[in-house]
Amino acid sequence: MIDPFVACILSILLLSLLGLPIGHAMIASSILYLMLAGLDMGTAAEQLLNGMFSSYILLAVPLFILAAELMNSGSLTLRLLTFCNAIVGRFPGGLALVNVVQSIIFAGMSGSAIADAAGTGKMMQRMMTEGGKYPPAFAAALTAASAVIGPIIPPSIPMVIYALVSDASIGYLFLAGVVPGLIMGLGQATIILTTAKRRNFPIEPPVPLRALPRITVTAFPALMMPVVLLGGIYGGVTTPTEAAAVAALYALLASALLYRSVSWSSLYDALQSSGRTTASIGMLIAGALVFNYVVTVENIPTSLSRFLAEFDLTATGFLLAVNVILLSLGCLLEGTTILLVIVPVFIPTAQALGIDMVHFGVICVVNIMIGLITPPYGLLLFVMTSISGQPLRAIAREVMPFLITMLASLLLITLVPGLVLWLPRLLGYTG
């Protein structure tokens, strides 16, 4: 008779290949495992309900998604782009630099790479390609690469999910992502500046200095959103989940009252879109909660810890091995699935080796974000293929220099934990 766990894994693979969403596949296959193992199949519902309804932290996910949708439906995004162009558009490859800078700023509002690419990505693609300024494939590749920064700089939906499985502090995880995100942004900007002359990237007409105050004032409400959000968390006024609610409300009020750019129709569309996205992520989380029970019953984390102990890995060696595994899986699997199913298996070993859970969380999130632009199945590459109309092969070729730079950034933050933990420790973290 086939082993129940093997049957469960084969069932997940088969159902996924047949087109069933991975969340549904994990739930169905976990029930199959319980049946074959002679366990109570009602345990699947118990694990799902306990995990979904006892985790207050999960409320932050739909609220951050809603905040991003409200920004895109209003004119906050356009005003941010105008502000970024006024600051860096005058340099070689100006619009390409605008793409990177706006992703860094937008990162402080949405927490989602897909929201960044789908929101500002459409506008940046149009702005960069009109008049033949930039090759369409390059514009699409840069937009995908810069969107990766979004979930690394706070707020971050992947970090919220990592906090769910690791019990690490969301506030300190958010802080820990700031420096790595800026390092990645600096690397992307460096590539643009070094290739601008070789590829004849245009310089945008400089915005007169006298116009900067007016542009800044116009964009000020949008620029204040990260301040309101993060100030509430680190000032002790709100929890991260409450801050997500404040971010959504702030985006609505700024778009509707200050900019008067939200209609009832666009508000309905934003609510509907965020609802669909939340339902998709929710089913994935539900499936992972049930499957993680199967993994626990099979004692997989302990078995993996014993297996790795045989190699006598140091903490650094373990982190490098995790990087290789997560980067490989990121080429094939969706990031949330990796966070919910694969990462929890590594956590006991990381703790046994004395690895800081905040540092480990940032490394995991960066790995998963890099997977979004890693061929053959990088999700952001598919998003930009749809937006730009360019073939996947062309976009994948253009994204390679940015991918190499991000891999170098990942290696740096892996080997130098102080880069990740400096800001959290500055604000009271004792890990």
In short:
Helix content is 76%, strand content 0%.
Whole-number count of domains: 1
In angstroms, what is the radius of gyration?
22 Å
Number of strands: 0
Biggest beta-sheet profile:
none
| Termini gap | 48 Å
Q: Roughly what is the average pLDDT, rounded to an integer?
A: 82
Q: Which range does the strand content fall in?
A: under 5%
Low-confidence stretches: none
- Tell me the series of helices and strands, N- to C-terminal: HHHHHHHHHHHHHHHHHHHHH
Helix content: over 70%
What structural class is derived from the secondary structure elements? Answer: mainly alpha
Helix tally equals 21
**Approximate shape:** globular
Describe this protein's structure.
Helices cover 76% and strands 0% of the residues. It has 431 residues and is mostly helical. The protein has one domain (40-426). It starts with a helix and ends in a 5-residue tail after the last helix. The model has no long low-confidence stretch (mean pLDDT 82).
How are the secondary structure elements laid out?
Layout lengths: L3 H14 L4 H15 L5 H12 L6 H14 L2 H13 L5 H14 L5 H17 L6 H12 L9 H10 L3 H7 L1 H19 L15 H23 L5 H19 L5 H34 L2 H10 L5 H16 L4 H18 L4 H15 L7 H10 L3 H24 L1 H10 L5
Helix pairs in contact: 1-2, 2-14, 3-14, 4-7, 4-13, 4-14, 5-6, 5-12, 6-7, 6-8, 6-11, 7-8, 7-19, 8-19, 8-20, 9-17, 9-18, 10-21, 11-20, 12-13, 14-17, 15-17, 16-17, 16-18, 16-20, 17-18, 18-20, 20-21
Keywords:
431 residues, mainly alpha, 76% helix, globular
